Amino acid sequence: MTAVRRSSSVIPATLLALALLATATACSSGKAPAAGSGSPTAGGQGTTVTVTEKEYSLGLSQTQFTPGSYTFVADNAGTVAHALAISGPGVSLTQTPTISPGGKAQFTVTLQQGGYELWCPVDSHKALGMDTHIQVGAAGSASPTAGGAATTSSGTTGGGY
After folding, report:
1. Which strand (E) or helix (H) includes residue 15?
2. What are phi and psi of 105, to 5 degrees?
3. CATH for 47-160, among 3.40.50.11480, 2.40.30.170, 3.30.1540.20, 2.60.40.420?
4. Residue range 103-143, pLDDT digits in tens
5. Is residue 95 within 8 Å of residue 117, measured between CB atoms?
6. Measured between alpha carbons, how far is residue 53 from residues 46, 89, 93, 130, 154 in Å?
7. How far is residue 133's CA from residue 119's CA, in Å, rounded to a whole number?
8. What is the C-alpha radius of gyration for the chain, rounded to an integer number of angstroms?
9. How many Cβ atoms are within 10 Å of 130's Cβ, its own excluded?
10. pTM for the full model?
11. What is the CB neighbour count within 10 angstroms for residue 40?
Protein backbone atom coordinates (compact mmCIF):
# COMPACT_ATOMS: atom_id res chain seq x y z
CA MET A 1 0.00 0.00 0.00
CA THR A 2 2.91 2.33 0.62
CA ALA A 3 4.15 1.72 -2.93
CA VAL A 4 0.76 2.71 -4.34
CA ARG A 5 0.76 5.88 -2.26
CA ARG A 6 4.25 6.79 -3.50
CA SER A 7 3.40 6.28 -7.16
CA SER A 8 0.17 8.25 -6.81
CA SER A 9 2.12 11.19 -5.28
CA VAL A 10 4.73 11.01 -8.07
CA ILE A 11 2.09 11.39 -10.79
CA PRO A 12 0.69 14.73 -9.48
CA ALA A 13 4.25 16.03 -8.99
CA THR A 14 5.13 15.03 -12.56
CA LEU A 15 1.96 16.66 -13.88
CA LEU A 16 2.72 19.81 -11.91
CA ALA A 17 6.25 19.94 -13.36
CA LEU A 18 4.90 19.49 -16.89
CA ALA A 19 2.30 22.23 -16.33
CA LEU A 20 4.97 24.63 -15.07
CA LEU A 21 7.20 23.80 -18.05
CA ALA A 22 4.33 24.42 -20.47
CA THR A 23 3.51 27.73 -18.78
CA ALA A 24 7.13 28.89 -18.89
CA THR A 25 7.40 27.93 -22.57
CA ALA A 26 4.18 29.77 -23.43
CA CYS A 27 5.30 32.88 -21.58
CA SER A 28 8.69 33.00 -23.23
CA SER A 29 7.26 32.54 -26.72
CA GLY A 30 4.65 35.19 -26.00
CA LYS A 31 7.27 37.97 -25.70
CA ALA A 32 7.24 38.73 -29.42
CA PRO A 33 4.08 40.59 -30.45
CA ALA A 34 2.01 39.12 -33.23
CA ALA A 35 2.31 40.57 -36.71
CA GLY A 36 0.09 43.58 -37.09
CA SER A 37 0.30 44.51 -33.45
CA GLY A 38 2.02 47.79 -34.23
CA SER A 39 5.26 46.87 -32.47
CA PRO A 40 8.37 45.34 -33.97
CA THR A 41 8.88 41.68 -33.21
CA ALA A 42 11.77 40.36 -31.13
CA GLY A 43 15.14 40.58 -32.80
CA GLY A 44 15.11 44.31 -33.49
CA GLN A 45 13.22 45.12 -36.67
CA GLY A 46 14.60 48.61 -37.09
CA THR A 47 12.81 51.94 -37.10
CA THR A 48 9.02 51.81 -36.88
CA VAL A 49 7.07 54.06 -39.26
CA THR A 50 3.31 54.26 -38.84
CA VAL A 51 1.35 54.78 -42.05
CA THR A 52 -2.16 56.04 -41.30
CA GLU A 53 -4.56 55.04 -44.06
CA LYS A 54 -7.85 56.88 -44.65
CA GLU A 55 -10.13 57.50 -47.59
CA TYR A 56 -8.10 58.37 -49.68
CA SER A 57 -4.76 59.38 -48.22
CA LEU A 58 -1.63 58.03 -46.54
CA GLY A 59 0.03 59.80 -43.60
CA LEU A 60 3.56 58.81 -42.55
CA SER A 61 4.82 59.32 -38.99
CA GLN A 62 8.23 60.42 -40.25
CA THR A 63 9.53 62.24 -43.29
CA GLN A 64 13.29 61.65 -43.16
CA PHE A 65 14.73 58.28 -44.21
CA THR A 66 18.28 56.97 -44.19
CA PRO A 67 19.33 53.51 -45.39
CA GLY A 68 18.47 50.76 -42.93
CA SER A 69 15.75 48.48 -41.64
CA TYR A 70 12.21 49.85 -41.24
CA THR A 71 9.01 48.28 -39.95
CA PHE A 72 6.05 49.92 -41.67
CA VAL A 73 2.89 49.63 -39.58
CA ALA A 74 -0.25 50.22 -41.65
CA ASP A 75 -3.00 51.65 -39.42
CA ASN A 76 -6.39 51.59 -41.16
CA ALA A 77 -8.11 54.65 -39.69
CA GLY A 78 -10.63 54.64 -42.53
CA THR A 79 -14.08 53.13 -42.96
CA VAL A 80 -13.26 50.66 -45.75
CA ALA A 81 -10.62 47.95 -46.18
CA HIS A 82 -7.11 49.04 -47.12
CA ALA A 83 -3.63 47.50 -47.46
CA LEU A 84 -0.10 48.89 -47.81
CA ALA A 85 2.46 48.10 -50.49
CA ILE A 86 6.03 49.27 -51.10
CA SER A 87 8.56 48.87 -53.90
CA GLY A 88 11.91 50.43 -54.73
CA PRO A 89 15.65 49.68 -54.82
CA GLY A 90 16.28 46.25 -53.31
CA VAL A 91 12.59 45.84 -52.38
CA SER A 92 10.42 43.99 -54.85
CA LEU A 93 6.71 44.37 -54.25
CA THR A 94 6.04 43.84 -50.53
CA GLN A 95 2.59 44.35 -49.06
CA THR A 96 0.33 43.70 -46.10
CA PRO A 97 -2.80 41.61 -46.34
CA THR A 98 -6.08 43.52 -46.62
CA ILE A 99 -6.75 45.38 -43.36
CA SER A 100 -10.28 45.87 -41.99
CA PRO A 101 -11.26 49.33 -40.68
CA GLY A 102 -9.60 49.87 -37.30
CA GLY A 103 -7.03 47.14 -37.95
CA LYS A 104 -3.26 47.15 -38.33
CA ALA A 105 -0.70 45.11 -40.25
CA GLN A 106 3.03 45.46 -40.74
CA PHE A 107 6.04 44.41 -42.76
CA THR A 108 9.75 45.00 -42.37
CA VAL A 109 12.04 45.96 -45.25
CA THR A 110 15.61 47.16 -45.63
CA LEU A 111 15.71 50.45 -47.50
CA GLN A 112 18.68 51.46 -49.62
CA GLN A 113 19.52 54.85 -51.01
CA GLY A 114 16.99 55.83 -53.67
CA GLY A 115 13.28 56.39 -54.20
CA TYR A 116 10.44 54.18 -52.98
CA GLU A 117 6.72 54.20 -53.63
CA LEU A 118 4.12 53.35 -50.96
CA TRP A 119 0.48 52.87 -51.93
CA CYS A 120 -2.78 51.09 -51.16
CA PRO A 121 -3.17 48.18 -53.62
CA VAL A 122 -6.90 47.70 -52.89
CA ASP A 123 -9.17 48.40 -55.86
CA SER A 124 -8.50 51.88 -57.31
CA HIS A 125 -7.35 53.42 -54.00
CA LYS A 126 -3.93 54.31 -55.44
CA ALA A 127 -5.54 56.34 -58.24
CA LEU A 128 -7.79 58.02 -55.66
CA GLY A 129 -4.78 59.44 -53.79
CA MET A 130 -3.42 56.64 -51.59
CA ASP A 131 0.08 56.90 -53.07
CA THR A 132 3.26 58.55 -51.84
CA HIS A 133 6.98 58.48 -52.54
CA ILE A 134 9.88 58.58 -50.12
CA GLN A 135 13.50 59.36 -50.82
CA VAL A 136 16.12 57.44 -48.83
CA GLY A 137 19.56 58.98 -48.45
CA ALA A 138 21.44 61.71 -46.67
CA ALA A 139 18.69 64.22 -47.48
CA GLY A 140 15.93 61.62 -47.74
CA SER A 141 12.35 62.74 -47.31
CA ALA A 142 8.80 61.83 -48.15
CA SER A 143 6.74 63.85 -50.56
CA PRO A 144 4.37 65.47 -50.68
CA THR A 145 4.46 66.75 -47.09
CA ALA A 146 1.87 68.56 -45.04
CA GLY A 147 1.70 69.44 -41.37
CA GLY A 148 4.93 67.70 -40.45
CA ALA A 149 3.81 64.31 -41.74
CA ALA A 150 4.13 62.95 -45.22
CA THR A 151 0.76 62.57 -46.87
CA THR A 152 -0.69 61.98 -50.26
CA SER A 153 -3.23 64.22 -51.82
CA SER A 154 -6.93 63.38 -51.54
CA GLY A 155 -9.28 63.16 -54.45
CA THR A 156 -8.98 62.04 -58.03
CA THR A 157 -7.05 64.97 -59.46
CA GLY A 158 -3.75 64.18 -57.74
CA GLY A 159 -3.75 67.51 -55.92
CA GLY A 160 -1.32 69.12 -58.36
CA TYR A 161 1.71 67.19 -57.15
Report:
1. helix 2-29
2. -150, 160
3. 2.60.40.420
4. 999 999 999 999 999 999 999 999 999 999 999 996 555 55
5. no
6. 21, 24, 19, 8, 11
7. 9
8. 23
9. 29
10. 0.62
11. 19
